[in-house]
Design brief:
- The protein is built from twelve helices and six strands.
- By secondary structure, the protein is α+β, with helices and mostly antiparallel strands.
- Strand 5 and strand 6 form a beta hairpin.
Length: 323
């Protein structure tokens, strides 16, 4: 029995980055993804593993279905969200692909687009584009026909705008972000406007917090003016470069505490989105993901501590993990 449980732990720990990567991309929330992964672990414990032909298939299927259930519930909750909603950024400095075979469907701007899709469509796109699952395998996970899955993935791809398809590489993204921050700190609106596309939009996620714009700010001049906010904003913060979702970002500290996360989305035409996260819960989630990433280097694997969960203690924090 002890040997069997040890094997179960080993299998789960090995697959855990993939499971988190699937759940995070479907949900856009590291906290909710962790809840899903914890629930999957509890179900894996209770399962008769002797009859499981493929642990990868079982755990991937369970994760995807639970994530879809949570996404359906989250959509209702987010209807009461105050102002723009943005995905929770996650630290990817030590795991640039966040558990995927390739770093697809990870950038914040793309996750924001995926959030507009029905959860099943989103899951199909994630499994295909980020994890390279075959259409028959996705069909089994989603309990659909391969023909339907192909149509769903094709439909999801069509939702992506040209800006998402033509984003700059990581080096150019970092260059544009640093130029944006330098100009904003100096109050140089002319230089800022030169970096922005005419149809640029600034989105501030604060869920009603003071100082966060509650509506999208559109247009080159308005976004440049908002982003300088000089001298009220930039002189009161310290700037820390970070990596989030496979791209450069900055963490702004006020009074020694991390208070705001910011990044941009860009093509060769320029910066077309400026993304600000003020929500304290999402800042805390990003900091937690940094700790997980650092722990991975120390332990050699990316896995939350399983102590206290080997006997099913603690349960899942997410009441909607049913499926």
């Amino acid at each position: 029995m002890e040997s069997d449980l040890s094997d179960a732990v080993s299998v789960f720990v090995e697959l855990r980055p993939r499971l988190f990567g699937i759940a995070y991309r479907v949900l856009g929330s590291a906290v909710e993804a962790e809840d899903v992964v914890q629930e999957v672990w509890l179900r894996w414990q209770r399962t008769d593993r002797a009859v499981v032909v493929s642990p990868v298939a079982f755990l991937s299927s369970t994760t995807t279905r639970l994530a879809i259930n949570v996404a359906q519930s989250a959509r209702v909750r987010r209807e009461t969200y105050i102002g723009p909603w943005l995905p929770e950024p996650v630290d990817t400095s030590n795991d640039p692909e966040a558990g995927a075979e390739r770093a697809e469907a990870l950038e914040l701007a793309l996750l924001l687009v995926l959030e507009k899709l029905p959860p099943t469509e989103r899951a199909a796109y994630v499994l295909r584009e980020a994890f390279d699952y075959a259409y028959p395998d996705i069909a089994r996970i989603l309990r659909l026909s391969p023909v339907n899955v192909r149509k769903i993935v094709s439909r999801a791809r069509k939702h992506l705008t040209d800006d998402q398809r033509d984003s700059v590489d990581a080096a150019e993204h970092q260059k544009l972000l640093h130029a944006f921050v330098a100009a904003a700190r100096q109050g140089d609106t002319a230089s800022l406007e030169a970096l922005l596309t005419p149809d640029v939009v600034s989105l501030s996620d604060g869920n009603g917090i003071r100082g966060a714009a509650r509506v999208p700010v559109l247009g080159r001049a308005r976004v440049a003016n908002l982003s300088t906010a000089y001298p009220r904003f930039w002189p009161t913060v310290e700037v820390e470069p970070v990596e989030a979702n496979g791209r450069s970002g900055i963490l702004l500290h006020r009074d020694g505490r991390p208070a705001t996360f910011m990044t941009v989305a860009a093509t060769h035409r320029g910066i077309h989105q400026v993304l600000w996260v003020f929500d304290p819960g999402k800042i805390a989630a990003f900091l937690a993901s940094r700790h997980r990433s650092r722990d991975a280097i120390v332990s050699g694997v990316w896995a939350a501590p399983l102590s206290g969960r080997l006997t099913g203690e603690g349960g899942s924090r997410s009441a909607v993990c049913r499926g």
